[in-house]
Amino acid sequence: MKKLLICLLLVVLAFPLFAGGGQEAAKKITMNVIVRNYTLNQDAPYKTAKATMETKFPNVTVNLEGLGYDDSRNKTLITVGANQPLDVVQLDYIWIGEYAEGGVLQKITDRLKSSDIYSDTIPQFLESSQWNGEFYGVWINTDVRIIGWVKEFVAAAGLDPEEAPTTYEELVANAVKAQRPPETYGYFFPLLSGEATVERWLSPLFSAGGKIVNDDFTKAAFNSPAGRKALQAYVDAVNKYKIIPKVAFESEEVNQLMINKRLVYCFDMGVWEEVSSAGWTQERYKKEYGFGVPPKFEGGKVATTSGGYELGIPRTAVDPNMSWEFIKIASSPENVKDWYIAQARFGTRKSLAKYDEEFMKAMPEYAVRKEALNYTNFAPWNPQWVKMLDPIYTAIQKACLMEATVDQALSEAEQAVNKILAE
Amino acid sequence: MLGTRKNKALWGYLFIAPLFICVFLLLLYPMLDTITTAFFDIKLVNIREKTFVGFKNFQTIFTQENPNFFTGTMRITLIFVFFSVVLQVGFGLVLALLLHLKWLKAKIFFRNVFLLPWVTAGVVCGFSWKFLFNQTVGVLNYLITLVGIAPQAWLSDPRLVLPTIIFANIWKGTTYSLLIQLAGLQSIPDELYEVALVDGASKLQSLRYITIPMLVPFLFINLVTETGDTFHVFDRIYAMTGGGPLHSTELLSIFMYRNAFVYGNLGVGAAVAVFELLVGLAFALAYIFIFRQERV
Residue B145 is inside which H or E element, if any? Predict the structure, then answer.
């Protein structure tokens, strides 16, 4: 009897070992997800994704942490560096190269290519989510930059307030006619804002056929005829045509300056995001402001730029399959569309087209931004990009403040960038 | 007897042990770790891997160009520290003397008002000043336009931005000087002034020959702590300018942050921190030397 009891006890004790598979499936999983703080101001995309995830997988609990730009980066790197569990991160796409090379993110190439996301993503966005031929991120949102103008000033200058300037030359001529300095300047350029300064040089650079670095990210490529043309355009806008004040505005002021009628034209129009929350109707907005695809240089091509965020799986994810599930749910058009509508964001999935009518109702500039998407370009996303920004914006500032010629400024920056790339 | 003394000593050590452990964990360990890190190549994206590089991180900061470390970052930091400390201690002394006036009413009210900047978080101060100095909607520009002066780009004009942040820093730091020096003034016995009055000393002579000499130990403490604090100021300046434009407000602390967290070179950031520690130490020793000479 005693032996029988012992055998029974052993069987009971050993049962969990053999039933491991079943237990595994029910194992409690807590997922830690770092996202940008403002994305948690409404349910979509992350709170809804959390709810869907927890319903679909009852053993999963999702912890969402909303952080500021710098904090989200620092916390991600420190958490992963300390080998602490982190399951999904929202990251600026410019960090992809750095995170991939540092082993912070896991490759998701196989997962991505075998899912609908791959074929559904606009091709140029796929390019900027890979590093060394492997994919590391899935786009969650982007911003496609367009130009905007105050119709009242353009009309007062005898120009058609409904028409966007199609070339930079036309834009400058219009701005000269329409501006009333010092109250109202012709064009917005945050001359002394660092990264934002460089970002606004990229569109004319790409329009003139230039680029920042060569295709394998090993050499600076901006000290070219196109780079010089793009920089000379800003130098002239500041010093010759005086449509940009020398003591420049700060980058985050653009919307307020447009609302307060202190500018005629601006790049990176974002006024609707501000005034819609203040109760403006689309009719009122369209009556006061015009918006269009950015211009091109005569003989050049139309070009704009995009930035935005991707979702990645950190090296320390507890269950990468679950992380991937969360990414799929969070980035799905059905899940994110309400966020895009609520905060005037833009997506990178082709299938979002089925919601075009809803987007157009919510965002007056939607059609223009969608068109601009065809001409979009990206700042480089190599690991050294953040460091490269410094010599590049120093060059732009020096040239515009006439502390160096365009040639000198770009040559100095080229040397410095090549040194950084060689490190 | 000996046993009792030993026991007392043991109890003493036991009582200070928690504090010692706290100091070690919160101050000494991070400091030692930072000093060690300064000699390694450690990247933020891969903090598990570190390679010993000797003094290479120090070489990197000293040979930095655009801006040059010594003529750029270091020069800006020294200007910032010099004007901030001198004016904070100066204004603190003036305010303390005013608050110490016998006939002044509502002393507690004024003292509390002066305390406000000190108790406000640095980041809050930074953003508040950023708003006040704003080129287009700032109160300051509104006020100067009322008297016919053109609006200024206080935080984006490289010529104006350093004086602007020094001003904001003085606003925040003066209260500390005020408190130290007010404590000093309150510690001076009234009898000394009464004797001076009997001897026919004027108010200015009392200030010159009684107040200032008696305040010297307090001024010393004030200068040492204020200099150290000003060298480390980060939050309010970063909130106002982020170190720009054109690196014109990139103090050592912001330079350290940029290297460690923006560029992700923790080793270089730690080397800047060690350098900052040494500079702070050098200033403290210089003050000790100067004040000792004064006493001799």
Answer: helix B139-146
